[in-house]
What does this fold into?
Amino acid sequence: MDSTATASLASLWDEVSGTQPDPDLWVVIATLGAALAVVIPHGLWRVSRNAITIAHEGGHGLVALLTGRTLTGIRLHSDTSGLTVSRGKPHGLGMILTAAAGYTAPPLLGLGGASLLGSGRITLLLWLATALLLAMLVMIRNAYGALTMLVTGGLFVLVSWLAGPQVQAAFAYAVVWFLLIGGVRPAFELQAKRARGGAGDSDADQLSRLTHVPAGLWFFLFHAVSLCSLIGGGRWLLEM
It folds into this structure.
């Protein structure tokens, strides 16, 4: 019985970690268009930005754990803002990395996803994304956040388990394009809001207080990471 279970696990791992055929170029272009369509128009962006907030707050939470901080909870709000709370030293490298992880997380996740898709690992991408969403769900501390995570995670579960290979490929490419493109806009929005006198306690301001480096340089970092990720990830996705 143990050998049967081991063989089943090995077979499952081979299926998850194996490669799948690349979709047709028209699918890649169509999913790029779909991502642009939900990021550029303001009305759709107000809704789709919730997914970027999940990646943003998830980045804070993951880096907090990796740097030895204690993650106490994550909140997602209907205005697409969020809050991640962790305990630990209020200064030092761990706190700096945690604060810097928010705006860099969506484009870097997109870049990592593009790398997996470029190597044909569509199933692995979907399973990893599902696992991260389920792990993040445990740390959500408000009703709207829990509902958002259940809907998002449920969609990934349905596609990963029930959809055919072509639908899985199209979904995976759409998600990665969305992270790459959608990861560019928030830093520009925050910078514009600060220029109007708002968002005085943004991630960039917190980083400025922690490091004594001007907030403008942290914005430069956010823009550099998102734009370089978009260029690099886009090249991987378009290479057929």
